[in-house]
Amino acid sequence: MAKTRISISLEQDQAERIKQHAEQAGMDVSAYLVHAATRQMAESDAIEEQFAEVDALIARAEQAASGLLAEPAPEPAAELTEQERREVEGALDLAHGRDRHGCRPGHAA
């Protein structure tokens, strides 16, 4: 099989690290880079194959959603009573993990 030469540009420290790693692996730089690139391509192909069904499902859902009309924004709610406001604030504090003084447990006020 005929070989093709590819030229790449690297920072000096990158080139030195690659040379060191290639030597440690008992390979020349070209073989080391081909091996690394081939391994990366195989990994990417495997990931794409694994998620192909999910990607297709998302694409179908996005296509179906593009034909839907957006719902109009709801009318603003009437002003809350003081009691309702306190209840909402209390519920939000619980959801955010704050105590009745507005402090998160374990955090200074």
Fill in the keyword field for this structure:
109 residues, mainly alpha, 3 helices
Notes on the structure:
- With 109 residues, this protein is mainly α.
- The chain has helices spanning 12-24, 29-66, 82-96.
- The longest helix is centred in the middle third of the chain and has 38 residues, at 29-66.
- It is elongated and about 80 Å long.
**Morphology call:** elongated
Rg over CA atoms, rounded to whole Å, is: 29 Å
Indicate the percent of residues in helices.
Answer: 55-70%
Would you count the extended β strands for me? 0
Q: Pairing-aware structural class of the strands and helices?
A: mainly alpha
Number of helices: 3
- In N-to-C order, the SSE pattern is HHH
- Work out the oligomeric state of the chains in this entry: single chain
- Strand residues, percent: under 5%
Low-confidence stretches: none
- The N- to C-terminal Cα distance equals 72 Å
At a glance:
The chain has 109 residues and is mainly alpha-helical. It contains 3 helices and no strands.
List strands and helices in order, with pairings.
Blueprint: H1 12-24, H2 29-66, H3 82-96
